[in-house]
Specification:
CATH topology of the largest domain: Glutathione S-transferase Yfyf (Class Pi), Chain A, domain 2
Number of domains: 2
CATH class of the largest domain: Mainly Alpha
Mean pLDDT: 93
Low-confidence stretches: none
Structural class: alpha/beta
Number of helices: 10
Radius of gyration: 22 Å
Order of helices and strands: EEEHEEEEEHHHHEHEEHHEHHEEE
CATH architecture of the largest domain: Up-down Bundle
Strand content: 15-25%
Strand order of the largest sheet: 2-1-4-5-6-7
Oligomer: single chain
Length: 365
């Protein structure tokens, strides 16, 4: 996977900019609040149809403008490709290899990648929805059918909730069957993803920290004894029937993958409550490295790796251990205030200097 170039027009604080990237390490440098992170946001938008920051689409349009436009050219499996996205505050136009795509979700998986940012600590400290979303986006990059089932489950659940509120049980079962089928697929894929992440995460944590602490990631869900599609479907259906009377009083669905969560342990203790700040940040970094490893293994192509504000998340030793791993991680994008961040990393680099949302200089090192 090689992102060759990126063009931005009226995106966030950028008037217009064009970047040609190295297939190796790309270091985006400059003072704070100059547009370094925005460059990563643009790449992430083309990957996922959204920024990795909690922003609405309209907030990505440069102040005083009415629309933004992004265009990337890249090579994947040796084939040159392109993707273009325009947004006017209401409608999006997405073109992939000269073919119009119908939805923003269609972008997911075209450019596979992983993003790390200081706010990722919310993966541990934040709500279950943040952890479900992390898992969903990771799986969706390598399984288009997963997106279909997420959409189908959400639509069916909305219909069921409306019927619950209206106290109309006679027409509810057809939606419960649809929900149960998609819930089974979602739950199975999440379960399998967690098993993979557990293996990769422990390896990544040891390389990052040189510590022997034991990491465990678990899937917190109400599950049957056998984890397969048929048993999951039947179990979900029985749970919906079991709770229907109470749910009709409340007006919403109580059980299903929309209520699931991840458990994150270090030496058998919840890291959210018992881990130090350093342990928590190392844990989150390791999860993202594990995500990268899994995407590479299943997708058979090294995904992009983006790291925003490298110096803010880890102490010096762990940051150096992280940077040492970059030599084996395909195309990497980093933001930092100083160019000397990568002095000891012996791999081809391209260094971009950004100032006031403008590309000031580019040099290879």
């Amino acid at each position: 996977m090689f992102l060759r170039s990126l063009y931005l027009h009226h995106f966030r604080n950028y008037e217009e900019a064009y970047f040609e990237f190295s297939p190796s390490i790309n270091l985006i440098c400059g003072p704070n609040a100059q547009g370094k992170t925005t460059l990563l946001e643009a790449i992430h938008y083309l990957m996922m149809g959204r920024s990795f920051r909690p922003l609405l689409g309209a907030e990505l349009i440069k102040h005083g403008s009415h629309s933004f436009y992004l265009e990337a050219k890249f090579s994947k499996h040796g084939v040159d490709q392109s993707v273009k996205v325009g947004f006017d505050g209401k409608e999006r136009k997405i073109i992939y290899n000269n073919t119009a795509l119908s939805s923003i979700a269609s972008l997911i998986g075209i450019i596979p990648g992983v993003a790390m940012a200081p706010d990722d600590i919310n993966l541990i400290k934040g709500s279950p929805n943040i952890r479900r979303q992390f898992l969903d986006l990771q799986i969706a990059q390598i399984d288009p059918l997963y997106v279909h089932h997420l959409t189908r489950f959400t639509r069916a659940m909305r219909q069921r909730n409306q019927l619950l509120k209206a106290k109309q049980p006679l027409t509810i079962e057809s939606w419960e069957h649809e929900m149960s089928q998609s819930a089974a697929y979602i739950t199975l894929q999440r379960h399998l993803a967690i098993l993979d992440l557990q293996t990769y995460c422990q390896k990544a944590y040891h390389a990052l920290t040189n510590e022997d602490e034991i990491l465990k990631i678990g899937y917190k869900a109400i599950l049957p004894d056998q984890i397969n599609l048929a048993d999951l479907r039947n179990y979900n259906l029985s749970q919906l029937g079991k709770h229907r009377s109470r749910e009709m009083m409340l007006g919403y669905t109580l059980t299903g993958p929309h209520k699931d969560d991840l458990s994150m342990l270090i030496d058998d203790k919840e890291i959210r409550h018992y881990g130090s700040e350093g342990q928590q940040r190392s844990y989150v970094t390791s999860i993202h490295l594990a995500e990268w490893m899994r995407l590479k293994q299943i997708g058979n192509v090294p995904p992009l790796l983006m790291i925003d504000d490298v110096g803010l998340s880890l102490d010096f030793r762990r940051r150096q251990n992280l940077l040492d791993q970059l030599t084996d991680m395909g195309q990497v994008f980093l933001t930092a205030t100083e160019e000397n961040l990568l002095e000891h990393v012996h791999k081809e680099k391209r260094i971009f200097q950004i100032q006031k949302a403008k590309l000031i200089s580019t040099r290879d090192a």
